[in-house]
Write a structure and sequence with these properties.
By secondary structure, chain A is an all-alpha fold. Chain A folds into two domains: about 1-55, Homeodomain-like (Arc Repressor Mutant, subunit A), CATH 1.10.10; about 60-200, Tetracycline Repressor, domain 2, CATH 1.10.357.10. Chain A has helices at about 1-10, 15-30, 40-45, 50-55, 60-80, 90-105, 105-115, 125-150, 160-180, 185-200. The structure holds a DNA duplex.
Chain lengths: ~200, ~200
Amino acid sequence: MNENNLQKRKKTPPAGKLKIMDSLRSLLETKEFGAITTAEIAKTAGVTEALIYKYFNDKRDLLHQVLREYLEEYMVRFGLDLKGIKGSLNKLRKLIWVHFHTYSSNRVFARILLIEVRNHQDYYASETHKFVKKYADMILDIVEEGMENGEIRSDIPAKMIRQGILGGIEHICLTRVVFGREIEPDVLTDDLCELIFSGIANRGK
Amino acid sequence: MNENNLQKRKKTPPAGKLKIMDSLRSLLETKEFGAITTAEIAKTAGVTEALIYKYFNDKRDLLHQVLREYLEEYMVRFGLDLKGIKGSLNKLRKLIWVHFHTYSSNRVFARILLIEVRNHQDYYASETHKFVKKYADMILDIVEEGMENGEIRSDIPAKMIRQGILGGIEHICLTRVVFGREIEPDVLTDDLCELIFSGIANRGK
DNA sequence: TAGTTTAGGTTATTAAAACTCACTTGATCT
DNA sequence: AGATCAAGTGAGTTTTAATAACCTAAACTA
């Protein structure tokens, strides 16, 4: 009973719930969320439709929880990836690369984040969205650190810089995700960093 | 009859169609598209639901046509706004300002473009989307012109530069649109241009 | 000018999809 | 042994997008 309590927090979720989430993930590989029906989700999960509503408030909540799992996983990785890197610009470069790489290797995750959740008000109030905010904060911290140590100009608002970085990444990936085109982290990172770090104005005379 | 032919192309659309489009525009001021029902649209238009399907293939087609009207209007304006400006960077600056200003003064337009259409495959194949592509081409032309005349570095792909600009603008506006916050073209343009033109790296030694 | 077509619109219905409710079954606690 | 509970089901209800069939008045044609 005591050890039961210990396990209580991380008790493995019931089989049905897992199957439902897996089912949606798999369907999202070929279809957009709006075109996936609850009947379809239940069927490929081998479960009844009603069970979805046992574990999720509604269809979008299911989507949010799927996204959330991805986010939890990737946030941990992101933190580790930045460890041991010296220099704010170097950190930003690494972060951009990892961001591209993550989208590149998990299209479903990219789809959800770039396309499927944005258009619903309640996403921005959701628990899931907090992870995204935490990530955005991380970027802001790096930028501010760079301003303090002199690596980064401090006459552009840090938040604007963050938005430039995120906006760039996401706009680049959006069309690629929509049309199923390849995302190449290496070249994209080089080009985007060149753009963000040095600007487009030709200063070579 | 002959003069009838002349007018045929630009005949004013029937009252019902106009009322339906107005109705959606007005509803979009307070609600997201997904939460607006066809019944609601018809009711505020003072028209029956079936009439919507006389003039539009489906609910999304109505949305696309509303967006299209905005785009037609703004594209003309954009072309004029750039006339008489010397220098590619100056043109880009003006374009960015106008872009911000347009979103700032027409939130419904901004909403549709930033939030409501992206998540549907068929938008990217629609007639409406061609206007957006035309706009994107315009930016690309300016960038390439700048590369030729030496104002803009040519070691970053022009398309990457375009994506940086558009991505920056849209990411900046997205949160503001979602949360109904103000968009201030003047300061945003200054900051974004500084970022894009000169980069964030501190080069003052 | 009588007859026919057409544009603009409506009434009534359908089909599909999201969501609910009342219930079963088997395991666990006391 | 009886109560409680978690996991899951079957059979609905409701909402909403979409259609089909029909009406009416104006415009065209012969």
